[in-house]
Every structure is written in C-alpha cells, then in structure tokens.
Amino acid sequence: MRPVVLCFSGLDPSGGAGIQADIESIGASGGHAAVACTAITIQSSQQVFGFEACAAELVRAQAMAVLEDLPVSAIKTGMLGTTDNITMIAQLFREGQIAQGTPFVLDPVLVANSGGSLGNVSTLVDAFLDLIPFATLLTPNTYELRALSGLQDLRAGAQLLCEQGAKAVLVKTSHDYDSGDIEQYLYVDGQLTHESFLPRLPGEFHGSGCSLASYLAGCLAQGMDTLTAVKAADIWIQKVLRAADQPHPDNSKAQWIPHRFAQ
Ligand code: PLP
Q1: What 8-state DSSP symbol labels residue 180?
Q2: Which domains does the chain have, with CATH numbers?
Q3: Residue closest by Cα to atom 5 of ligand 1
Q4: Average pLDDT over residues 132-137
Q5: ∠ CA(54), CA(56), CA(58), 5° rounding?
Q6: pLDDT by residue (tens digit) across 163-222?
Q7: Pocket test for ligand 1, best of 109, 171, 173, 204 (most atoms within 8 A of CB)
Q8: Which of 14, 226, 212 is nearest to 107 (CA)?
Q9: DSSP SS3 for 13
Q10: Can you tell me which atom of ligand 1 is nearest the CA of 39?
C-alpha cells in the first residue's frame, strides 16, 4: 500500500489546518494519512473560538488501532492540545509501540496562525522536552523555536533543540509576516545543512505550517532523506500557496486556504 503516515492532530472545521491539511498534504505526497484526533477546535478561516482536547486514553486507543493494523512508515504530530497527549505519544515511542527508527516529523504547534489559543503554551513547552528526543525533524516557526528553546537567536535555538535530541530542526520565518523573504534553515545534528529563501506571497495562509510538515512526513515515509524531503516540500508548498483560495477577497487580513490539490 501507499506509505502510511500516522498523524496526531486536531480538527479544524474550516479545513485549512489540522487533520484536513494532514490528509490532503500526505495524499499529495503519494502517501496515505491515518489520523488520531487530538482535539476538536471551533474555528473559522479567520479565528479560533475555542477547542476541546481529547483525553489521552482516547487518542492512544485511536493510535493503537492504526499501529496494530497498518504498516506505519512515519509519524507526524501537530496540535496536541494537552501535556497528557504529548506525554502519551512519548510513551508510545518508549514502549516500542511506534517501531524504533520510524521517521517522526514534530510540528510543535503552540498557537494558531491567527493568534488563537490551541493550548496552554508554557505547560506545552515543558512537555515537548519529553517528545523532542524522538523527532527526526522538528519544524518550528520562529515563535515556536524561541518558546521551546528560551533563546532569541535562531541558530543558537536550533542547536539547543538538536542537543535536546531532535535529529534535525527546520526553522521557518513563514509566520513573521512583517519580514521579507521566507527564510528556512535546516540544522542536522546541530550543523546548518541547508538554507532557502522563498519569495513571500501576498496574504496570510491558514494551515501552511501543517501542510509543510505533513508533506515532509509523507516524503520521509517514502524513504527520502531529510534534505531531499525539505527540497521537495519547498517546491510543493510554493505551488499550493500560489494556488490558495481566498475566502474573503474584501478583507486583506483574512487567511487564505492552501489548495493542496493544485497541479
Ligand atoms: N492544528 C490545528 C488544529 C489548527 O487549528 C492550527 C491553526 O489554526 C494549527 C494546527 C497550526 O496552523 P498553521 O499551519 O497555520 O501553523
């Protein structure tokens, strides 16, 4: 079967981010997404109104049903919502329920792109320390990198997260809307291995981070190495953001929804 990626992520009813972003992006990469739902959010393409996280036992039961059934070739985590969910996933790795060596893309979601809360940031940050050592690739934006590392300097922050156990860290300035080009820096084993500068498209996007991380997980599930996956994902994300749908053409602040089926 197509390479299976087991995702842990939240439902975004607008369809821009979360579970739907995972399913569409992994499908576009050539893989099959299986999803354990971690939270149900109440949100539009413009703002988060609230969320209810799923109990860790419920998320674990969903994941186990997949792990005992499908040949899982990669793991991807997005919004986890609670520290219990983070700890439970770390436990799945420790117990060997997730086979050792399975590529793992950890998108350390702390807040929505629109600024809305997706969990208690300081407790999530502490809990992520437990999960980071299992990550093949951590994909923080600059806010997440600084929150996780406690450091302002991007290079020092990425290197610290590698020291904490992440095999690679892809730092993105995509959510710094007042900056110029989107800069991406890939650190592998603490060494800067690749940098890219992508033109910043007009508009803000809902679920661009989720889409990139899931597509990367789909590539790793197919056996690509991290650098090759990052280069492939850069090309793909530009294409789907260029083709994004604009739900509110009269409101320049409203977010656009990536068109992940764009050819
Ligand atoms: N996961 C869920 C369920 C979300 O609702 C969001 C943002 O709204 C995210 C993840 C992160 O989104 P982005 O890819 O825009 O950073």
Answers
A1: S
A2: 4-256 (3.40.1190.20)
A3: 12
A4: 98
A5: 65
A6: 999 999 999 988 776 778 889 999 999 999 999 998 888 888 999 999 999 999 999 999
A7: 109
A8: 212
A9: coil
A10: 3
**What type of residue is 90?**
A
For the chain, the residue count is: 263
Cα–Cα distance for residue pair 131/164, rounded to 1 Å: 10
Q: Is 208 in the pocket of ligand 1 (CB under 6 A)?
A: yes
pLDDT in tens, 56-85: 999 999 999 999 999 999 999 999 999 999
Bridge-partner residues for 77, per DSSP? 8, 106
Name which of 81, 89, 88 is nearest 6 in CA terms: 89
The rounded distance, in Å, linking the Cα atoms of 225 and 114 is 32
Sign of the Cα pseudo-torsion (95, 171, 52, 27, in order): negative
**Quick check: 11 and 40 in contact, CB under 8 A?**
yes
